[in-house]
Structure formats: C-alpha cells, structure tokens
Amino acid sequence: MDSKKKPDDKPVRRSQAWFGKQDRDGFMHRSWLKNQGYPHDLLDGRPVIGICNTWSELTPCNGHFRDLAEFVKRGVYEAGGFPLEFPVMSLGETQMRPTAMLFRNLASMDVEESIRGNPIDGVVLLMGCDKTTPSLMMGAASCDLPTIGLSGGPMLNGKFRGRDVGSGTGVWQMSEMVRAGEMTMEEFTAAESCMHRSSGTCMTMGTASTMASMVEALGMSLPENAAIPAVDTRRHRLAQLTGRRIVEMVKEDLRMSKILTRQAFENAIRTNAAIGGSTNAVVHLLAIAGRMGIPLTLEDFDKLGAEMPCILNLQPSGKYLMEDFFYAGGLPAVLREIASRLHLDAPTVNGKTLGENIANAACYDREVIKTPEEPFMADAGIAVLRGNLAPNGAVIKPSAASAHLLKHRGRAVVFENIEDFHARIDDPELDVDEHCVMVLKNCGPRGYPGMAEVGNMPLPPKVLQKGITDMVRISDGRMSGTAYGTVVLHTSPEAAAGGTLALVKNGDIIELDVAARRLHLEVSDEELARRRADWQAPDVPKRGWYKLYVEHVQQAHLGADLDFLVGSSGAAVPRESH
Ligand code: FES
Ligand code: MG
C-alpha cells in the first residue's frame, strides 16, 4: 500500500488504507476517532503523524513529554499534517527492576507493532531516559517509515551548597564519601532535591545525553537536539520545527533507511569518542544497526574510535554539565571540530547533509569544548579487549579510567553475583587490597537477567579509607553512563552462558593491558577445562517475558537484541480488523 501512485499521480498514503475506505470499515476507522472532536477533513489523505510518546510519571526524566508533544502537534498542523499521539512502554532507568535494560527489547516490540498496526504515515519519536531512545529507534527501524527523533533535553545543572553536582556521577562520588566517613547521611539526603531540580534527563554525559547525541550525529534529529535543556523554550521551538519537518519528510518519502546508513553509524561512533560518551552506546548502536541490516561489529568501535580525541570536558570524564555544553555551542560545535573525521555528505532528516548542518557551528566556550589539537583527552574511544577471559570481546572507556591502571596485573577477588557482592564488600575481613582485580559474575544479558548497570562496583571501605578511589573491576554487566573508573564491561560470552568469566576463582591472576587490547586470565587451558567440566549452568526463568528474553537474547557483542527481532519487517498495511 505504501507509496503506490494513483492515476492522477498523487501518492496514496498508508493511512488512507484506513481512512480512505468508503465502506463499513472506513466508517469504523473514522467514526471512533471522531469521538475526540476531529473534523472530517483531517482524514482527507494528508500525512498522519504518530507521536510516539514515552511519557510516564514512573519515568521522571520523560515526565514533561506530554507538554513537549503539544509543540510537536503545533508544527504538524502548521505543515498540513494530522498528529496523533500514542503511548508506548516507558522505561525509567532509576525505578525499574531488575534493570530497565531487561525491557529495552520488549519496548521496541511495542513501538514496532504500534507503528505498523496503526494508520500512521510518519513518526516522531519522543525519547529521553536511557532505554527510551534505543527502544524507540530499534522499533521504528524495523518499520522504516519516515521518522524523526526528538529528545526531551537534559535537566538544568544540579546545584548543591554552592557547587554543581551531576546526575549519577555525584551520587557515585557522594555515596563513596559517606562510606569513607567524609559525608553525613543528612548531607547526603539534602543533596537529593538539589541534584535533580528541573524537568529533563540526566545532565551529565550519561547514557541519555549520549544517546541524544547519537540521534543527532546519526542525522535522525534536527541540529541542536542533544543539548538544549528540557526547560529552555528553545526545546519547545525545536519540537515545533520537528513537527513541521516530519510532514515534509512523509511527502519526500524520506525513510529511516535513507538516513541510517553505514556512514551514519561511523559518524556516531566517532562522535561518541569525541564526547566521552557512554559505553552503553555500544550495545544500543549495535542493536539499532542490526534492525537496519547494517553490518556493524564491536571491532568498528575500536577501529573508528581509536585515536579519536575526547574534546568535551563533561562529567563523568570531566568537569562540566549539559547546560554548559549547550551554552558552549552544543553538539554541532563538537561535530565541526571533528569534521575532518566525519562523513560530511551523510544525509540527515532536515534534508541537508551533516556537513551543511554544521558549516556555521561555533564554539563559545573553550573550557567546555576543546579542539582535536588540544583535546580534553587523547585516544579516548571505547577500547575493545580480547583474551581468554573475553574471546568475543569486552569494553572499557579509557576516558573514564585511571591512567595508572590501564596496564595492571592483579589477584582476583571474585563475587558470584550482585547479592554476594553486597553481602561481603563491607566486611573488614574481606581479603582485598587496591592491587586486586574485583570480578563480578552473572550480570550479563542472561545472567541478571537484562545486563544490569552494576559493573562499577563500589570499592571496599578499607581501600577507600586509604584515599584510593579506583581499582580494576571486571564483569559481564554494564555500567551507568554517569559512572567512571577502570571498569571492564560487557565481557562476552557472559558467565551465565558459560564464558571463561564463570571459571575465575579467588586468587587467580588477571592481566589487563588496554594499549595491547588484552584481558587475560593466567590459568592454563587444562585447568580451565577441568573447571568447565564442574561448571553448572544457572537455572532459567520458567515463564513470561523473563523466559522469552533469556531464551532469545544475544550476547553483548551483538547488541543484546533478541535473535528473532534482528532485521526489519517494513510497514506494509496489515489485513483488516473486522
Ligand atoms: Fe533517566 Fe538518567 S535516569 S536520564
Ligand atoms: Mg543508566
């Protein structure tokens, strides 16, 4: 039904398969919609724009999205379209247990089927909190209609007792101060209402800001999408312009597959290095590329990101916050600095190339946005490690790590799961010092399940009390994009899938050499084979989503999508419902 031409050469829109029918079914599709007060002529064949909304009071980062949608609607009406807002599963990073990541793929199915099953010609994706961006991008990609992204924008800078405090990053810092006896619980509690004081997403370069930057670097949003604060009226203007633009995109038949090319993903990977973005971008970009049928591997992150400088001085790697980033010029200014390493002819949703979009971008604050010549940090791309401990790879973010630990050999202190970790980490009898390597098992896609953000394990109090704030840590989990430290993540295969990680024992020696991209367990193959013979796979869930997820989730190096969701089914109009 898509894009077929009528004899008079006007395109027959997808939505007309519902609203254009002069029969009983057409009556039903139109009449029930009219109970919301819409006049008949809105159903005359103009582009119907679905506004895919992840608003939820349980996703506080997206709590302002119903307001934002109203501005999108203004733009859609102005451009001659008909906007219809619809909700999809909303994943709140800070509330959902065992981890919002367990439901990313589920939400993507909701998005995909909600788009395909409804009378929609084009889609606006309202995205904010960490998992809401990849789940919407993945689901929409599997439909491939004309689609434009709009992020909710970051919160204003956190302000606590005269200083800036960043989402997440400040929590990790202050909770360690409480554990080290340097901060009282009263002060810690007082900081809660100071850190998060406006609508919006985490204002550090955590996963939400990273993914908003990825959306912009991929060409999937209008310029400036990543950094305009949620409460700045320029965010509303951007929403209105986004609404106008999607109507034109439907007329131009500018589908996601025309934007999300291999070049676009290469631009995104390089941008992620330049902004010191989250390691979570790795699993999300791999999963989105998988939906588009774009070949993208873990190696691409290392190859394309290696030798990329980080030029953004933002927490958790640096000092400033997203509000500062916007005033300094936002993502267009960063992209212009690294322009020589980008595919500037990559198309974007506004109909211009990436190069055209950033041609006049300027930097207004060199403290915040540096240059490749004098970067904030050299060689900052995500490094992919290999070795007998991670035959399919593991990742580390060098810009968030301690330089003196990037090459390290130490004795393993092993935790079987996160409960085991919490039960023993504060025990003064725990045999651990700062030279040890903390190993956490069973936090991967199948093991947790859902690949939780627990990889940045808090340090033992007796190490913290020496003033030491970093140790080498290894797991098959992820870490929050707001976190930092010498933390090896996404180890594949994971422990619960029988990876070598499952076989590590207390006292084993582990070697980490980031420059050589090496992660090695100094245990002989024979001994590992003996341990493997004794290893027992953990129990698997018996019913429901957990069961479906564990049975079908792919390993981290493939993006942790479900095997049967990889690829696209397009958006052909399904058969009639009555
Ligand atoms: Fe929602 Fe950070 S927790 S954006
Ligand atoms: Mg997170």
TrEMBL record:
Keyword Iron part of the UniProt annotation: yes
Enzyme Commission number(s): 4.2.1.-
GO molecular function: lyase activity
Keywords annotated in UniProt: Iron, Iron-sulfur, Lyase, Metal-binding
Source organism, top-level taxon: Bacteria
Domain Dihydroxy-acid/6-phosphogluconate dehydratase C-terminal: 367-560
Domain Dihydroxy-acid/6-phosphogluconate dehydratase N-terminal, first and last residues per copy: 46-357
Gene3D superfamilies: IlvD/EDD C-terminal domain-like
NCBIfam families: PRK06131.1, PRK13017.1
UniProt similarity note: Belongs to the IlvD/Edd family.
Protein's UniProt name: IlvD/Edd family dehydratase
Organism classification: Bacteria, Pseudomonadati, Pseudomonadota, Betaproteobacteria, Burkholderiales
